[in-house]
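User: Last request for today: this protein with nicotinamide-adenine-dinucleotide, please.
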Amino acid sequence: MKALQLAEPKAWRQIDIPHPEKPGPGEALVRVHRVGICGTDISGYLGKMPFFSYPRIPGHELGVEVVEVGAGVTNVKAGDRCSVEPYINDPESYASRHGRPNCCEKLQVLGVHRDGGMRPFFTLPARKLHVSKKLAFDQLALVETLAIGCHATNRSQVAEGEYCLIIGAGPIGLATLEFVKLTGAKIIMLDMNDTRLKFCREVMGVQHTVKPSDKLEQDLRDLTEGHLPEVVIDATGNNASMSAAFGYVAPGGRLVYVGITTDEVNFRHPIFHRPEGTLLCSRNALPADFTRIIGLIEEGQINTQPWITHRASFDNLIEIFPSYTRPETGVIKAVVEVGE
Ligand SMILES: NC(=O)c1ccc[n+]([C@@H]2O[C@H](COP(=O)([O-])OP(=O)(O)OC[C@H]3O[C@@H](n4cnc5c(N)ncnc54)[C@H](O)[C@@H]3O)[C@@H](O)[C@H]2O)c1
Ligand SMILES: [Zn+2]
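Assistant: Here's the final one, the structure of the complex with nicotinamide-adenine-dinucleotide:
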């Protein structure tokens, strides 16, 4: 069967690989229907993702169908439609034993550290599958992106009535927005990209959007009864933004980094000492987030309709992929329809 592989940065190739063997104990063989493309895939393509190794079959945002299960599998059966939690953890690790499989010391993410879903069939641990009886494969492929925002929102413990500033209106900021909305917090989105802020206002129903400027702190005070937001969530991955974010937190407030940078983040300590701030990181997501999100989409509390802006087929992805690296194409989420 054919698969799409990144042989090295900027070099996609279509390869032939053997059909997977029968699933072993605890495993499931799945048929991949949809693969979402995200910033991680783009960074992997551009050679800017430090954890990415080559050659690699990407694909970690997956809508799949179970074909066959191995011995002892009870959570899924053949024919089930599922979302995949792509974080393959070691259940015996310290992190996993302490309820944090998302940051397991031996974590291997599908499509990043080991081959992912840009292939018609593959096997994986069945415990990583989350079933839905109602959702379409497109929607199931969106669950992982949403899970990143769900976990970041949970980390922030943002509550109804609080002000929450989300910095960065890319897919991760938008995923975060979906879950902050559900808490009843008052949302402010900050980005320098007018098109993305317009999308937040017109499609996502955000009332307050702001842009970086010399008077940003004052703008934020004006929108928050003078005290700044209780919660700031940075989803830019930009170290200058992440440094500046220390200065936007209300007394007793929380700053969450869901964006990732490999650069140093510097801040003048008194800026964060003064409000006695708390800094939190948010990595991946937890199994319960996947279950919750499937339920929220099924109940219509999250509308996936605005999310998929671009589509590719297995046969034209290689040609189309470079366009996804250009922000002017307005891509929020591209989804690949996987053929055999
Ligand atoms: N926590 C996790 O597990 C996890 C998972 C996936 C992705 N990420 C990270 O989340 C981050 C965001 O991903 P994305 O796909 O949404 O990226 P993106 O590049 O599409 O979006 C980032 C947005 O931030 C804005 N921005 C950049 N610098 C800014 C600044 N100084 N001030 C205001 N806005 C600024 C950009 O205009 C852009 O709209 C990345 O760092 C990515 O690596 C984290
Ligand atoms: Zn992703």
